[in-house]
Amino acid sequence: MLRKKSFVAAFLSLMLFLSAALPARAEVAISSPSAILIESSTGEVIYELNSTERRSPASITKIMTLLLTFEAIDSGRISLTDQVITSEHASSMGGSQVYLAEGETQTLDTMIKCIAISSGNDASVAVAEHIAGSEEAFVALMNEKAAELGMVDTHFEDCCGLSDSDSHYTSAKDVAIMSRELTTKYPDIFHYTTIWMEDITHETRQGTSSFTLSSTNKLLKQYQWTTGLKTGSTSKAKYCFSATASKDGIDLIAVVMGAPDYKTRFGDAQTLLTYGFGVCNLYIDENQEPLAPLPVEGGVSEQAGIAYQGEFRYLDTAGNDLGAVEKVLELPDAVQAPVEKGTEAGRARYLLNGTEIGSAPVLFTEDVEKAGYPDYLKKIFGFFLL
After folding, report:
1. Which of 127, 131, 185, 311 is 20 to 30 Å from 344 at the Cα level?
2. What is the extent of the structural domain holding 381?
3. Are residues 189 and 242 in the same domain?
4. What CATH number does residue 334 fall under?
């Protein structure tokens, strides 16, 4: 009897050990057929399910439209105060819209609100035409950007997601890629995607009227860490969502596609985000400390300045003590001229429990040319004149 009890106890202990060792996907229960969860600053994947499966994206297409809009603002080609005119084509868009009339003018700032808050198809097309001259030209830019970002399972046919064409598709992974690009490079997008309701004014030949923009992102009221980003739904795409959230310095992006209904869409996204915040631990070394110059042999200068290329980040989801991370700086005792600014001088390597988890480059901050005969003579004369 005692032997039987011992066997049962050992079996149960083994099951507990194995369950703790299961991959992340086994610990997340969602109903959507395709999903992914990433940490935004590192791009690390925390969870994925059929994440490269090509699906109709509906209005999460507009993430790319917003990305190109903010790129154009950043480059100075357009500004938030631009007056955007609604064309006949833009005003004719069906589906989700803010009822812009042909010839109606709104500032670009207002148009972005119409897209980000209420998912206005008419506003999306008006902005696309303002940037590229036509929706077709803008869609070409969308596909170029998708290729540039490595979105291998994406092709756009329009700028708003109305298309039911089999040639208009993306994947959960690709949506996460463009969502990360938008939110990390242009965090001002959150000024728009965190708005729950806001009124705009229509000024047309028929007169002036007020219209209330209402967010399609119900997580803004259901999940306190929510920061955005974009919903989408059509009969073909079903219910899609790219959800962003921020908590305790960790930024997550959860993408669900093909959910059977809107409740499942929001529920699955919240499940993924909650799971991510529960397992994520972020190590950050800002690498701001100054580094001593490196000696240069055979150069016009005897030393060259060096600095870290940037910060180092490491995402842990295994519950490790990140206070145990060790930083090892690997630099040569000296270098030979010539030295080129921006080239690698060495690296800072990071170890956790004896295993390397990543590294950060150390770069030269100045050029040092190779010394010639006149330089050596100058040094000799300088020595005797001291």
Report:
1. 185
2. 294-385
3. yes
4. 2.60.410.10
Residue 74, Cβ neighbours under 10 Å: how many? 12
Q: Are 299 and 371 in contact (CB under 8 A)?
A: yes
Measured CA to CA in angstroms, residue 72 lies from 63, 140, 272 at distances of: 14, 15, 32
Tell whether 133 and 70 lie within a shared domain.
yes
Of 255, 279, 303, the one marking the end of a domain is 279
Q: What sign has the CA pseudo-torsion 180, 185, 189, 194?
A: positive
Structure tokens at 162: 């109305």
Reading the chain (386 residues) residue by residue, the pLDDT tens digits are 434 444 444 444 444 333 433 344 447 899 999 999 999 999 999 999 999 999 999 999 999 999 999 999 999 999 999 999 999 999 999 899 999 999 999 999 999 999 999 999 999 999 999 999 999 999 999 999 999 999 999 999 999 999 989 999 999 999 999 999 999 999 999 999 999 999 999 887 777 899 999 999 999 999 999 999 999 999 999 999 999 999 999 999 999 999 999 999 999 999 999 999 999 999 999 999 999 999 999 999 999 999 999 999 999 999 999 999 999 999 999 999 999 999 999 999 999 999 999 999 999 999 999 986 555 445 555 544 45
User: Which residue numbers are catalytic?
Assistant: 59, 62, 119
15 lies in some domain:
no
User: Does residue 165 sit within a domain?
Assistant: yes
